Design the sequence.
């Protein structure tokens, strides 16, 4: 249960972006959940679907509990979406960058610090910009570190 709670709550709500979805009935509430939205109530309760299970404040809920909760105060829920990695760049993200969609051995690794109008930059306002950026996985980053140490 702790893993589901951590996944539902995250470190905090900074990785959530408010949507303009209207939650005015149980059907809209369910559609938002099915579309991957995270619902946050006026008192800070969090509801989302994780691995096909309804999670309310970190607890897996039964369908009857869901209906009970949703009918209690439908209008008090706001729909959020989880931010994509590039929508909430803070200190930077280490990425493979290129101007072509397909990854190749020519891709370079850069610390991306901003994304404006679909252009990824190593420094905000920098002339260096790329059309595509893909964050390195933990394994790729460790492999790059190992290569650097061997040189």
Sequence:
């Amino acid at each position: 249960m702790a893993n589901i709670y951590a996944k539902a709550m995250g470190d905090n709500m900074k990785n959530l972006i408010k949507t303009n979805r209207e939650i005015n009935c149980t059907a809209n509430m369910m559609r938002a959940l099915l579309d991957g939205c995270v619902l946050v109530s006026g008192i800070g309760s969090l509801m989302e679907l994780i691995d096909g299970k309804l999670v309310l404040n970190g607890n897996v809920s039964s369908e009857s509990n869901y209906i009970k909760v949703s009918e209690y105060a439908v209008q008090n829920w706001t729909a959020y979406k989880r931010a994509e990695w590039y929508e909430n760049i803070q200190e930077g993200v280490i990425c493979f960058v290129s101007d072509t969609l397909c990854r190749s051995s020519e891709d370079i690794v850069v610390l991306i610090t901003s994304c404006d109008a679909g252009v990824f930059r190593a420094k905000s306002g920098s002339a260096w910009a790329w059309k595509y950026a893909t964050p390195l996985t933990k394994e790729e980053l460790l492999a790059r570190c190992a290569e650097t140490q061997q040189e």
Remarks:
- The longest helix spans residues 138-150.
- Residues 1-12 have pLDDT under 50 and may be disordered.
- Residues 86-150 form one domain.
- The chain has two domains: 2-82, 86-150.
